[in-house]
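Example 5.3 — ATP-grasp domain-containing protein
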Amino acid sequence: MFQKILIANRGEIARRINRTAQAMGIATVAVYSEADAQALHVRECDEAVCIGPAPASESYLNIGKIMAAAKATGAQAIHPGYGFLSENAAFAQACADAGVVFIGPGVQAIRTMGSKSEAKACVQPAGVPLIPGYFGADQSLPTLQAEAARIGYPLMIKAVAGGGGKGIRVVNSSDELPAALESCQREAKNAFGDATVMLEKQIIRPRHVEVQVFADSHGHVVHLYERDCSAQRRHQKVIEEAPAHGLSQALREAIGQTAVQVARAVNYLGAGTVEFLLDARGDYYFMEMNTRLQVEHPVTEMIAGFDLVEWQIRIAAGEPLPVQQADISTFGHAFEARLYAENPEQGFLPAIGEVVLWETPPAAEFNRSQAVRLDGAIASGLSVTPHYDPMIGKLIVWGEDRAQALSLLVKTLSQLRCVGLKNNLQWLKSLCLHPEFQAGGYDTGLIDRMGVESAADSSAQPMPIVLAALAAVARWGQQTDWQTADPLARLDGFSSAVPLMRQDHWQTRHDDRWVVKSHVAALKSGLLVRTQVAGSSVVALSVQVSSRARQGDLNRIQGEVQSDAGFKPFDLIWHRDQLHVHLGDCQHTLLWLNPTHIRADDAHSGHGVAAPMPGKVFAVHVKPGDAVKKGQALVGLEAMKMEHTLTAPKDAVVKAVVHQVGEQVAEGTELVEFEE
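Solution (predicted structure tokens):
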């Protein structure tokens, strides 16, 4: 067994590998970029080596620097995690040349399965079912247009070296093909260094089902059954579950054995995932094989009871698989929800910034025997930068059946707290509560069908008066001295038929504006909150405060508020001018419209288009003097490994294009200026 391994990755997967390695008594080496100097994986590993500046090309993708770190620390093996160099054949070869064990498959398997076209050619002789398409080397536009006409629309363009939802475009007609092809090839080149694409017939309303396989160096290959990864946005998995809902036992066995055939066809070693599309008739088609550990491997661990990272390490050390196929069974149901730093209300644009508060439920610790597990990479006080993927963690839950597991997922999402950083926690909960998701057996188009409303809170909304009362309590809680700091509080001892009311202006995240008049009286039994919203009659509510804390510009009040169903627990977290209200299982964000200043977005509203996040301009679609329509493409911005097209918010005339292709811009930088 290895004495020391180097983990060539970052974030939650680096921490995940480190936990298992240290539990096995293996010393670990972390590598990190300058941007990750304070990262959790750096603190937790036994050693850490800085490998360069923030850009991944100069650090996590730099094979020479990683190999130098392995040599300097005496690491006997390297675990690549997922992403970055995990499916890079040149990296695996560099490890072999240096006498360092690559904890993954052989070089040839990576090369073959790393190309979607080669992978299909490899497995076809084994009788593996394939989707009709074009996988040829001729990448000229005329050839691709002719092949697209042969296959028929709609179809998908896919980067042959792709993964993670990047380098994929759906094309519905021949008119769309040239532009989609150019965008797909550019994104593929930037993400994988290879612009080669393939064409594939689009299966209508498919399910994305994948099978976890393992192979050792002694000729044994097993599968650990399937996962359903159909909940996708922009071809990126969002929630995964295992087992797949509604599959017959015969289909489960058939798709599992096909995955084993695929692994044997390429002489596989270690952990791999064979991905299939499943149509409405129950027919399945091979898509690709990922030659690494998957992001969603924890759901398989939860239902099968094995540590898959430990299996990887032992197989790489030459040990046989610890079990045979007949010994593998599953129990219960598991979900994994990917937590992202992104803004669902603005088209899921990636978000950056400091995490002011990150709080998890007490049970959310790494232990596969527990019902709740959180694999994360952030903590209060750390920052998310624009240099890497926006995923900040994964919430994994297990239950005895699907209904129990899904209920636990919704409950735990409600208990997580993330303040200071835009995130998708509430949106994930709304997805979990969607009727199609609740029923199971949904297809990959579910999230697209949810549309823009999926970004809203679909949970039961409280009466505005209750939310307004809590907003009043939050304003009251800002005071240093509860009893004397506020002139209104000093009036509590006076008897008055009409108490003096404070007036505040609030805005919800859906742009609803409220004028809230309130009076908070501190009584021995708690608080009596008299509230009036938008001219409604004054309502008095009883509020019990159980705790109150202040740290810097973060204020927090917890307790219970009177409602129709009795008392409901609340958690109010005020950060700067934002109030995060957690009421029961519902979450809301309110913006206090501070009368002492004008917000920046109000001041600049309507005069142009600014960068919503730091990034690099890769395309400019307009020039000064152009008349543009609302929704027309203006500028292409590459950020956090994805391309984003910024569009005109209204009909306007372009006055100036401030930044050109290739320029790096900061968040908030004006890119296109409109005529007044």
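Remark. The chain has five domains: 4-103, 132-201, 207-455, 464-592, 600-674.
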